[in-house]
Structure formats: C-alpha cells, structure tokens
From TrEMBL:
<feature type="region of interest" description="Disordered">
    <location>
        <begin position="1"/>
        <end position="22"/>
    </location>
</feature>
<dbReference type="Pfam" id="PF01663">
    <property type="entry name" value="Phosphodiest"/>
</dbReference>
<dbReference type="GO" id="GO:0016853">
    <property type="term" value="F:isomerase activity"/>
</dbReference>
<keyword id="KW-0413">Isomerase</keyword>
<dbReference type="GO" id="GO:0016787">
    <property type="term" value="F:hydrolase activity"/>
</dbReference>
<protein>
    <submittedName>
        <fullName>Isopentenyl-diphosphate delta isomerase</fullName>
    </submittedName>
</protein>
<dbReference type="InterPro" id="IPR017850">
    <property type="entry name" value="Alkaline_phosphatase_core_sf"/>
</dbReference>
<dbReference type="InterPro" id="IPR002591">
    <property type="entry name" value="Phosphodiest/P_Trfase"/>
</dbReference>
Amino acid sequence: MTTEPDDDGTTTTAGGTTSAGRAIVLDVIGLEPDHLDRGLAPNIADLVGEPARATLEPPFPAVTLPVQTTLATGRSPESHGDVSSGEYDREHDVAAFWERDRADRDRLWETASDAGLTTGVFCFQHLIDTTADVALTPSPIEDEDNNILEMNCWTNPDDFYDDLREELGHFPLHTYWGPGANEESSTWILDAASEAIERHDPDLLWIYVPHLDYDGLRHGSSDELDDAIGVVDDLVGEFIDGLRGDDRWDETVVNVVSEYGFHDVDTPVFPNRALRDAGLLSVMDDGEGGEEVDLGSSRAFAMVDHQVTHVYTDEGSVDDAREALAPLDGVERVLGGEGKVEYGVDHPSAGDLVLVAESSAWFQYYWWREESDAPYYATDMDIHAKPGFDPCELFFGDSGLASLDPTLVGGSHGRRDCEGFYGLGGPAAPASVPETVDARTVAPTLVDVLDIDVEMEFETDPL
C-alpha cells in the first residue's frame, strides 16, 4: 500500500495492493475472542479462521459512538471529537445523547461512495443525511412529549423503508432497546441488509448487530450471555449463508468487529450526587413533582457514559469537583489535562475532568436519593431527555417502564481494557492478521483490501 506522510504525522491513503470486489462489515457488539475459543460461535468461527482472528483494541472511551466513529474514520476520539455518546453544549447548558450531527466528519461509507463505490450502512449512529447510497436508521415520528405517533426509519433511497416494511413489517423498535430488547431487532436488521444486497448490490456494507449488547449489560458473564452468543451466531450464520449463495461471494471479504467487550460490574457510582453534596450541582423542580438538574446554575455536572464520565465545571471549580469525586468508591482515575492527553481524549468536547471507573464499577447519572424525587423521565424510555446513559432502561420498573434499581446491571464497558473481537473471513480475505488490532486500523485496512482512493487521513497503516 502506498501512503504519504502528512505534517501532523498521519498518513493519507493512496490505494492498496490487494483487492476484493466487496466488503461486508458485521459490527457484532460485545463479541470477544474467548467466545470463539469456547465454541460458543461456531458459524463465526467457521467464517473467520484462527490465523485471521484478533483481539480488538478499542479507543478510549470504549463506548458506542467514540468506537463507531474511530472504526469508520481511522482516527482517535481526540481527533474526530466523539469523546462520548452524548454531547454537552457549554454555551446553552444542554446535555444530549445520540443527537449530534455528523457535520463534516466523513466516514468510510461516505468517502468510498465519493470514490465511486456503492456503499451501504445500517443502524450506526448519526446516519440521517449520510451520503451512503443505501442507509437505514430508526427515526420514529414523535409528538412534542416524545410519544411515538408512528414507527418510521430514515433511509437512502427515500422509499427504501416502504419496500422493507412490505417485506419485513415495521422495524421492531421495542426490541432494539429497552426492557423488551431481544434478537428480533438484529434479525430484522440482517434481513433488511440482505434485501439491500439483493436490490442495490453495495460494494461496501456496514451492519450493526446489537443483540449481545443487551445481555452483556444485563447479566455480564453468565449463562444468559452465552445463550445470546449462540443466538447471534445463528443469525450471522444465516446471513453468511445468503452471501455464499450469491454471485459475488468469490470476491467478498467479511470483517467481523465488535467495538468492545464487557466487564462484570457490581458497583454503581453516582458522581452527580457527590457534586450535589459538595454544593457544586444545583437542582430545580421538573414541573411534575421531581427534581431536574439545573445545568445553568450548577458549578459542576457529570455526564456519565457506562464506565466513563465527563465532568464539566465552571471556571475555578475544577479542584472542588476533583476533591468531591476522587474519593468515591469505584473511581479508579480522575483525568485532568495530562491525563486526557494520555488517554487520547484531549478535545474541546471532553469534560474538564474525566472519570474512569474501576473494572467492577460503572457510573449512573442520578442526582436524587429518594425515588419520589426522581425526574419525570427517569422511569421512562427517554434516551434523549436523560443527560447520561441509562442501562437501567433494560429492566422493567416497579413504577414505570424503566427500573430505578442500578444494582440490576451486571456488565459495563468504556475502559481502555474492554477489548473486543476483530476478524477477516470470506474468499477474498487475507489469510492472517496480527494478534491485536488497533480500532483505528479497520478503515485503512478496508480501503487497502478494496484497493480504492479515498480522501481520508488515517492515523495508522492498514494491516
């Protein structure tokens, strides 16, 4: 592969030396090398031989959006700016999850499309308005109170969801996240991807397969998770059988990647409670009898995301916030300026402080201590209203759809050591890969395998 060094030390891809005609990326969340070693995923093991399997080293934080953007851009969070699955708008004092625009952050499915390939992507984050030729992301029509009026998906082409609905029925949103989350959504996504292959024949297709994430978070290492591995392996096996039967199989490489693995956890940590006790976080009436955090009046606020927390402070309050948070049981490190550089999240979007949990701990966003003081959305499925990721939404609650019992959560991720799986299979795949693969290597390797010229600067060379 030919590369050209840039002033900042990165490399610009200028084409590859090996070529496949089609690349399929299966993002099987939570898959780990041990799952194949223990014989729990025979279909994936059959596809990806041992010399072509590796441990994936995710970026920090090893949570959904930072990892997805790293996989698709070949760059680290401190470069591409997705340092969390949420974003805090300092100017307007608003914290929001899953709502950031992709802006000018082109990912491989966009740049490869510009380079002349037909590209597709299913259910990755921030897909609305992507220029991928075939794309789908759930986008239900809601009223002003976030009640779903009609199930819908945003797609390229515009009428693609209408076609899918006729073939497969509506996207099963209630099984995609929440207490009813199960394999039905992964089945629908893979079936829709098969339809995309038949109708649009993409040269590069990225597919998000979420099923393992549910039981990884619910149960951690468990019989339930082992059963879920078998379920998703069967689904992947059926999808691969369909690929094997089409006329492009001989030119196909399949990249199986998992974003991250899980740690078993038993210690929920509440940084916003500690900030409130220290007089740094303020609350106000939410209008329905509960307490809402008052971001505008708070001197410090913690935006939690699994095992990582970004702490945003007013000028002059950083040391007070550190003093309140560092002693908490379950906090391993409090990263300041030098720590953020060390961990690769030194970006303006990052918190003034970044908390890293111990391997058996995770962060919950709660600032109240009595359930009667919880804000109205705490027991709802309301991922956009909550200023932090809430895995308790995977459990039915006593007084609402979502539980308020954080002790139910059995697994989490986000630390640098939440290693996942990487593998290449199919007739056009390389015969072997290194034992460990940096997540930043995935995009340049796909460019190399497909032998295309793209306008992207990568931080690593291909495998």
